[in-house]
Design goal:
6 strands, 9 helices, globular
Length: 227
Amino acid sequence: LLSRALLAGASGQLRNRATTAGNLLQRTRCPYFYDTNQPCNKRQPGSGCSALAGFSRQLAVVGVSDACIASHPSDMAVAMRALDAVVETVRADGTTRSIPIADLHRLPGDTPHVEHVLERGELITAVVLPKPAGGKQIYRKVRDRASYAFALVSVGAVVQPDGTGRVAVGGIAPKPWRDEAAEKELANGAKAVAAMLLAGARPTEQNAFKLTLVERALSAVLVEAKG
């Protein structure tokens, strides 16, 4: 699962220069974050979110707030979320801690400029993967072109022979999106899983298609797992 996610990310040239920590801590992607002529709460807290009424096709549909609808770009983080990775860090004073990847990234709320739980001066020193989960491991990425493109929707899944498993979704939220309660619906098919994963979704007119795309991507993953 992790190997497939890595190969789906960026391009070969970028992957050769990238770091694990750098990938996990990528800034969430939004065109208005980079356009300094436009208001952006992530860049300038309190200035407003231009994406709410602007171009939002690539942006998040769940986990968003009135302050920000940017989506997290990492493929690797989606796989690590499905695998329950743990991030190890060292603080500026030399103390260390272990952070479950589920807790590393923050939802925007009223403070979209605060994207993760790391303290100032805290460095990621390692990422620990648990004992192999077994099962059929799949990473499916739906994007506009075959390389060097962020996911519109991605699905990282570990499906066991009995139909149980884990599912994390990318491209739809400010962090890798996983709901353990939704995973209990795997035996009932993609529609049931997607309904729980996307509960409370707040899509815009431009990115509402992602709701259908999540279900279709999940369906394709479950078909591949059975094969």
